[in-house]
Amino acid sequence: MKRIKLLFLVLVIPFLASAQQISGDWYGLLKVQGMELPLIFHITESEGKYSATMDSPAQKAFDMPVSSVTFIEGQLDLQMANIGAQYKGSLSDSKIKGNFYQANQSFQLDLYTEPIAKKEIVRPQEPTKPYPYDTEEVSFTSEEGKVTLGGTLSLPKNTENFPTAILISGSGPQNRDEEFMTHKPFLVLADHLTRNGIAVLRYDDRGFGASTGDHNAATSSDFATDVKAAIKYLKSRKDIDPKKIGLIGHSEGGLIAPIVAAEVPTSFMVLLAGPGVPGEQISIQQIELLGKLQDANQQDIKNEIAVMKGIFELIKNNEEDIEVLRNKLEVYISHQMEKNKVVIEGMSTEEYIEKQIAQLTRPWLRYFISYDPRPTLARVTCPVLALNGEKDVQVGSANLMAIKKALHDGGNRQVTTQEFDSMNHLFQLCETGAMKEYAQIETTMEPIVLETVSTWINKQN
Question: Given its phi and psi angles, is residue 144 left (phi above 0), alpha (psi -120 to 50 degrees) or beta?
Fold first, then answer.
């Protein structure tokens, strides 16, 4: 059975090594969907035991710990529990040759003792200092002080009673710029909005960048508490109008924003490629859209959907006992692999199944699969702008109709929706919508989309 690549956002990996002169700094370029992500691994040894941290400079993520390290006879195995990742490599002649595994995908990653020259990337929309507005590094706490979130507040100059937007990122651990595929969508969006008289608060996801907490143990509901904390923080400032605070959510952020807006008075809400149906349906839509994009055999697509539906049923019917769920998933996946003669390169069947189970039993995925955003959308009363790209294969534009209907069913008539032709999940003009195109496109977010958002927000306030 041909495997069709699923979802989403993922980009980090840490790592370690062993006694054969392995202490020191190791450099690599992780190649993901046409982009190159520089990584630096700092390896130290004490009393025969090794530890390591990892830097991902492009994501402004530094000193990330490795949770488990095994190095036997030149074979390296690193576990990154916080992001559900693993690295396996072999040390030979001052080089570590290996692969990084995450989200059921494998990426080649070789490490060297010298920095690797990286091609300069042109991103013309990224602003450069000095900015024509003020910026301030801020922090606030969530979950009664258990989580501290670090971010940036951008404030218009010479303007009073301006609206303020909180940016909510998509799935996976991301920094305040929502950095993904060599682009910084939230940096570009925040710059545009602030230049147009709208203050912006953006922050690192919990457990990432300057923020504390465990991202891997959190669900969309937990991330909603972080947004509520951001609102509370903004209301504590004398320079922010508490009646003009709104939300802008991208991808999963478009699922989180309504959870908050349905409970906390909100001036406005913008959904950028937000889900309008349960996560199970989003995942099935992805299989169909990606299968069509990859020109996959229709029977392969049907088989993939059937397998995923079987997995989702197991998850939904065994929520209370994780061990029971793990056992049932092991039996089911093993049977499907044998039935469809699936062979995974680079790892044993047992390892592959264990990785699948680790992903499928994550609190985030179990919540996402079952959560239906429509009843929550029906409780949102503030003005709403919902946008999608016509070629989005991660959250298809068909979600716009579901979002509009749910809002209308709840009595909200302050709803504007728009689909942009030939745009992808990041709102870039594209050829096919494939994720590999993201990094190849210079534009981070099309100006017409930026203008649509800022003009609409200013009309509401």
Answer: left
Asked whether residue 270 is domain-assigned, the answer is: yes
Question: Are residues 84 and 13 in contact, defined by beta-carbon separation less than 8 angstroms?
Answer: no
- With cut-offs at 50, 70 and 90, classify the pLDDT of residue 1: very low
Residues 6+ apart with CB under 8 A from 344: 352
What mean pLDDT comes out for the span 310-332?
A: 91
Kindly state whether residues 238 and 383 are assigned to the same domain.
yes
pLDDT surpasses 80 at 82? no
Please write the tens of the pLDDT for every residue from 20-63.
Answer: 567 778 888 887 766 677 888 787 777 777 777 878 777 667 87
| Neighbouring C-beta atoms of residue 34, cutoff 10 Å | 15
Q: Examine the domain organization and report whether 103 and 177 are in the same domain.
A: no
What confidence tens digit (pLDDT) does each residue in 234-272 have? 999 999 999 999 999 999 999 999 999 999 999 999 999
Whether 419 is covered by a domain: the verdict is yes
Report pLDDT digits (tens) over 285-313: 999 998 888 888 888 899 899 999 999 99
**Do the strands 199-203 and 147-155 form a parallel or antiparallel pair, or are they unpaired?**
antiparallel
Last residue of a domain, one of 312, 344, 369: 369
Domain count, the chain: 3
Beta-bridge mates of residue 388:
419
Q: How far is CA 202 from the centre of its chain?
A: 14
124 CB burial (10 A radius; 0-12, 13-18, 19+): exposed
Hey, what are 179's tokens?
């950095």
3-state secondary structure of 181: coil
